[in-house]
Structure formats: C-alpha cells, structure tokens
Amino acid sequence: MTPLLATSLVRGDHIRSFHISAKSPVGWEVSENEDHRVVRRRRCSDWHQVEQALSRATRDIAELREQGWQDR
Predict the structure, then answer these.
(1) Separation of alpha carbons 55 and 7, rounded Å
(2) Are the beta carbons of 21 and 1 closer than 8 angstroms?
(3) What HEC string does the chain produce?
(4) pLDDT by residue for the chain (72 residues), tens digit each?
(5) What pLDDT sits at residue 19?
(6) End-to-end Cα distance, the chain
(7) Into how many domains does the chain fold?
(8) 49's torsion region: left (phi>0), alpha (psi -120 to 50) or beta?
(9) Domain span at residue 15?
(10) Residues 6 or more apart in contact with residue 58 via CB below 8 angstroms
(11) How would you label 27-49 residue by residue, b for 16+ Cβ within 10 Å and e otherwise?
(12) Neighbour-count burial of 57, counting CB atoms closer than 10 A to its CB (0-12 exposed, 13-18 middle, 19+ buried)
C-alpha cells in the first residue's frame, strides 16, 4: 500500500524522515526519524488523529525546507 506521507530531508550529514502509512487492522502508523533514530512513533486508530499528524508533519517539513534542508 502507498504511504500517505513518505518524506526524507537532508542537510549535511543529517537526515530527517517523516512517514505515515496504513497498518491494518489497527489503523495508521506515524513516525519521525532523525539520523536513523526514532524521534516519534505512534499508532492512530482514528482518522482525525491521522489528519493532525499529517498537518504537523507538513508544517515541520516546510520549516525544515526554509532552514535549508533538501529533499533526499
């Protein structure tokens, strides 16, 4: 299944990744990684939670791009 969000950004030797994907039957998994470490991971069983997570990730990605991070 295609992820709802799968974005990785790089700056120098650093990597930030954001992922949201469906995980049947429990709902969706939301994760954020920094330099191969899990910064945040949660499972959402409610679409409203997924929308909030997507909104937050989209904001974070935009801020990182403004700071000079590039798409991987």
Answers:
(1) 14
(2) yes
(3) CCCCEEEEEEECCEEEEEEEEEECCCEEEEEEEECCEEEEEEEECCHHHHHHHHHHHHHHHHHHHHCCCEEC
(4) 789 999 999 999 999 999 999 987 879 999 999 998 999 999 999 999 999 999 999 999 999 999 999 999
(5) 97
(6) 21
(7) 1
(8) alpha
(9) 5-71
(10) 5
(11) ebbbbbbeeeeeeeeeebeeeee
(12) buried
pTM of the model: 0.90
Tokens (6 digits) for 20: 């949201």
Tokens of 2: 């295609």
Structure tokens at 37: 């470490």
**What pLDDT does residue 24 have?**
79
**Cα–Cα dist 46/40, whole Å:** 18
